Amino acid sequence: MATLADFNSPLLPTWCPGCGNFAIWTCLKQALVEKGLSPMDVNLCFDIGCNGNGADKINAYAFKGLHGRTIPLASGISLGNHKLPVIGIGGDGGTFDEGMAHLIHAIRSNYKFLFILHNNCDFGLTTGQATPTTPQGQKMNSSPYGVVESRLNPGQLVLASGASFYARGFTGNIPQLKELIVKGLEHEGFAFLEVLQHCPTYNKFQDHLYLNSRVYDVKTDENHKNDRRYVYDLVDYSNEKIATGLLYQDPESTSYYSRLEKRKGMETTLKDEVKVYDIAEQVKEFI
Questions:
Q1: Which region among 1-10, 231-240, 276-285 has the lowest average model confidence (pLDDT)?
Q2: Which of 78, 219, 255, 285 has the fewest C-beta atoms lying within 10 Å of its C-beta?
Q3: At 276, is the secondary structure helix, strand, or coil?
Q4: Rounded distance, CA 154 to CA 156, Å?
Q5: Residue 285: pLDDT band by 50, 70, 90 thresholds?
Q6: Domain range spanning residue 107?
Q7: Lowest mean pLDDT among 130-134, 140-144, 165-169, 173-177
Q8: SS3 letters for 68-110?
Q9: Comparing C-alpha atoms, which of 94, 54, 39, 37 is closest to residue 71?
Q10: What CATH number is associated with residue 125?
Q11: Dihedral sign, CA of 194, 200, 204, 208?
Q12: How many domains does the chain have?
């Protein structure tokens, strides 16, 4: 049985003091232990950015992809070995800039893996530029007169795109965040987990105190409904309170791989079927 110590890396985190990444890093390890997974039993795919600096801060099979390309990396690994738990990890910048198309297609395909979005509303690694989740009008390093574009809402985007699982956590609630990671790993399809976090260096408008004063767990709301339209309205930015927890899950969700008729009943994974082919004859045509 794996322990937290098994996931420790000799390299210590270098995030700024107070960064929400410390909480996500901790909850991720706790969730893997709770699931009974050892470092060799899971694959982690990291994006470029402050979140990506966690790739070598945890002892596990970890890949760091190109900026915004974490989702296709995780999708391919999950399809290649559908028996391997896969977690993709990315920031709000890469995910909703270069990675937007990848996100939409992962949702519609319903590939089976958990995607954890680090949402701090800025590009922290490159010193505080605005991302698509930065509020309109907010002054940032690259927007000295304020952000011109309208603000993107991650929850509404994924729900409108047909997501089968949408949860939202907060780095100030460790037990809840760990539980959401566990639930995402157990989901039969693409599980989107948005994590609200503070960037203590570049985000002064959505700090820990601001979030802590507004978040609540939907478990405390007896009127909460597991309904796509209801949750879409619930996560609108106009609402004063911020709902967290497992907000929506399709109980009938089936993953992309499980819908492949030609794979039904096959015990092997795609990676097991990779062979070496002699293509000498084909190559001669181009010599």
A1: 276-285
A2: 285
A3: coil
A4: 6
A5: confident
A6: 4-284
A7: 140-144
A8: CCHHHHHHHHHHHCCCCCEEEEEEHHHHHCCCHHHHHHHHHHC
A9: 94
A10: 3.40.50.970
A11: positive
A12: 1
Residue type present at position 124: G
Structure-block tokens of residue 142: 């690259």
- What one-letter code names the amino acid at 61? Y
- The per-residue pLDDT for range 189-237, each reduced to its tens digit, is 999 999 999 999 999 898 999 999 999 999 999 999 999 999 999 999 9
CA distance 103 to 71: 7
Residue 1, pLDDT score: 83
pTM over 0.85: yes
**Angle, helices 100-109/70-80, rounded to nearest 10 degrees:** 30
Residue type, 285: E
Going across the sheet that includes 165-170, the strands are: 61-64, 43-46, 86-91, 113-119, 190-196, 165-170, 242-249, 215-217
Note the pLDDT of residue 150. 96
CA angle 78, 169, 207 (to 5 degrees): 125
> Phi/psi at 160 (nearest 5 deg)?
-70, -25
